[in-house]
Amino acid sequence: MTNLQSQDFVRISASTLTPPSVRDHEAEVAKLIDVSRCIGCKACQAACMEWNNVRTDIGYFEGSYDNPSDLDPGTWTLMRFTEWENDKGDLEWLIRKDGCMHCEDPGCLKACPAPGAIVQYANGIVDFISENCIGCGYCVKGCPFNIPRISKVDHKSYKCTLCSDRVGVGMEPACVKACPTGAILFGSKSAMTEWAGERVTELKSRGFANAGLYDPPGVGGTHVMYVLHHADRPSLYAGLPDNPRISPLVDIWKGLLKPVSLAGIAFAAIAGFLHWITEGPNEVQPEDEAEARRLMKEDDAR
Amino acid sequence: MYRKEGGAFPDPILNLTRNYTNPVEPNPEELAKEMNGRALVDIKDSSGAVTLRSGELLDGFAQLRDDGTTESGCWIFSGSFTEKGNQMARRDATDPREQGIAPNWAWAWPANRRILYNRAGADLAGKPWNPSKPIIEWDGSRWVGIDVPDYGPTTNPSEGVGPFIMNDEGLGRLFAREGLVDGPFPEHYEPFESPIANPLHPKVQTNPAARVFADDRKAFGDASEFPYVATTYRLTEHFHFWTKHALINAILQPEEFVEIGEALAKEKGIAQAGWVRVSSKRGVVVCKANVTKRIRPMMVDGKPTHVIGVPIHWGFTGLARKGYGANTLTPSVGDANVQTPEFKAFLVNIEATSAPVT
């Protein structure tokens, strides 16, 4: 799903090789989702399905406008609708476009044990290289935003690519192109941050005192950012994590357990070797032969 | 058939001009040129000089003649495809004053005018109301500006011609002096099905000029049997009843539902996404309920009045899940002037039910 090349990789899952640095000068990109301007029309969802050519099953009405009811291998972005009564008792319909946040410090990539199945490009996009995916699901555990979904059909993990194939040839992601209100914007991370600042100022002037930009530092910032009217309470927006961090399990797995297990393997090998040196191989002794013959005789006599 | 059997006046059919490259399947460019119109003979001005040669495309509707020497599909399209080419294909997005007017982007009818009645943007003397955003203004001898004047190009403001040139009096209208069968002043009538008496004048409950057939009138319910107000509407994911046949739209809103407020849901024991039976005097819809904070009872005449929202998009066929037609519930009422159906306000009842057997 990409027009970018291996020379664009700056991080590669489960690899100890040094990634190429030839594209390090590239500006980092970002998608800015201005929740305050979203009307919940789902044009972004339709455009995502069209461009990426993915279709999920026709579902059911399950008690909200969220359809499909969750992200799945064919649903890489999803409008999540929340009806929230604010402190004044007024209703606010909070509509958040959910999908991969493209973390600067991607938990999925860290957790992934399959070499080259998850990569990050110099422009910041985190992409799944499907042919390398083994479907283990560690990326799901590694993701602080609960985004990747494993297909029950081909056992591959899927999520938003930030339209890396479009971005690679200088186009904006499909959802950005389709958005009729300008609620989804795309550009360099610095430009998007700057524009978000203007929007936050505007929202504050309209009485949203806690308006702000969601670019969580716990994952090194993200390449998909939100303008929120209530940036002090991200979890209002269908459970957007207040302070996302990569699960400590990933650090234990990759940080603590990996050297411990490597040490365990090394210890077993060394111990075995030492045992062989000091004790020698385990050979059959004459007493063992005699005992075996005696047992066979007993057996015959019975 | 007309050639063989004749008829009252077969000429328009028999003499239809179809001089296209392929008469059975004209290409869009040929049709666009025909819509624009062309001269059928050499057109001369008053001095006798030829302004337009026979066969040439018209520059605009001012060149049309009522003597059969010119042709055009419709006068408002005249100027859209001229000898200079397809004006509708122009793509110069230049917006000279950054006020949303790009005169060289495509083409707008009539005469590439972007704002109708744009004379109203200037005061009586022809000076723009907002000098920083002039549309057209009087320069002493003619109207100039970034838009094409919707006014006599040399009509002096002192002549006192009103800006709304299509109205007899030349002025904008707050009410219609003529044309409305229930005019001229706006009046409030209740919908034909309403839970209350007309609070403005109880003796005239509904619009006496509305189009209602006798049999349809018999099918009106009242609030004793159908105590809730219903309204039909569309969702952003669908277009009318068409897109239930389109896969992506069907994925985005797969199944029929009605929307009710939390208070009514509690009162009637209706669960979120639970099945409900919505009935009117005319029909029944069985579908799921979306219990939402967005709908609250309205206080009407001192009483809480519950509203039920009925999105319309599902039916007996399509890729989306099968549903009941919303219009089995709605009344057959045509408004007094253009007979638009009264689908936005009618009476229903609602009760919790079990899932239909499939």
Helix-strand pattern of chain B, N to C?
HHHEEEEEEEEHEHEHEEEEEE
CATH topology of the domain at 214-352 in chain B: Barwin-like endoglucanases
Average predicted local confidence, pLDDT of chain A: 93
Our Rg estimate of chain A from Cα atoms comes to 27 Å
Shape of chain A: elongated
CATH class of the domain at 214-352 in chain B: Mainly Beta
User: What share of residues of chain B is helical?
Assistant: under 10%
Relative strand content of chain A: 15-25%
Q: Tell me the CATH topology of the largest domain in chain A.
A: Alpha-Beta Plaits
Q: Residue share in helices of chain A?
A: 25-40%
- What's the shape of chain B? extended
Helix and strand content put the structural class of chain A at alpha+beta
Strand order of the largest sheet of chain A: 9-2-11-10
Alpha plus pi helix count of chain B = 6
Largest beta-sheet details of chain A: 4 strands, mixed
Structural class of chain B: mainly beta
The overall strand count of chain A is 11
Strand content range of chain B: 15-25%
In short:
Chain A is an alpha+beta fold and 302 residues long. Chain A contains 8 helices and 11 strands. Chain B contains 6 helices and 16 strands.
